[in-house]
Amino acid sequence: MEVLLLCLFFVVGPVVADENERLPNKCEVCKYLTVELQATLDKTGRSKEVLEVGEVLDTGKRRRKIKYNTSETRLTEAIDNICEGILQYSVHAERPGSLRYSKGTSQTMATLKNLVNKGVKVELGIPYELWDEPSVEVSDMKKQCETMLEQYEEVVEDWYFHHQEERLERFLCENYVLNSSEQECLKEVWKGDTGLKSEETAASSEGEGEGRIHDAGEL
Fold first, then answer.
1. Which of 156, 107, 119 is nearest to 5 (CA)?
2. N or C: which end of the chain has fewer CB within 10 A?
3. pLDDT tens digit string along 42-61?
């Protein structure tokens, strides 16, 4: 038991310290904000629902009808609590750059939980029931997401009503939020398992020519 605990100290120690010190940068925040918003909009993009707007007057004038998939209502519903989705992410410390942020249990945490299930005592400084709570990094990303969304809300609206033929990540992050020297993380695409054992199976990215397009399904 003592040997196992000693090994865990050296394996877990650097990971925990790194997670506490490494906060998301502006590129990573913009990248995952657009991933979440684009994915939410994609889910409702094929809706055939028609909305009636305006009031029915005494003159009998009919209310105006608009398609839901081009309505302001659809955008508002997508934006509401969009940054809450960031809290579903975990820190995958074994992955490089912005790819460290992904939904699902990280390889490191899965390994530690497996050891606990085998009866090994693992000390992380927090109760076991809190292991799956959002980390400091992820909570910070959520706060930055809210600030960025508020700051660039008009840009998002402009994209939604006039430029949806262009990917949101490119329109918002590259054209408005980031300088050219800050865009490196947008080129990072998850290409599947790095060769280390994991309980999760990562889907390979499609189309290397579209290296700057990121969908929620690949993260």
1. 119
2. N
3. 887 665 555 455 555 555 55
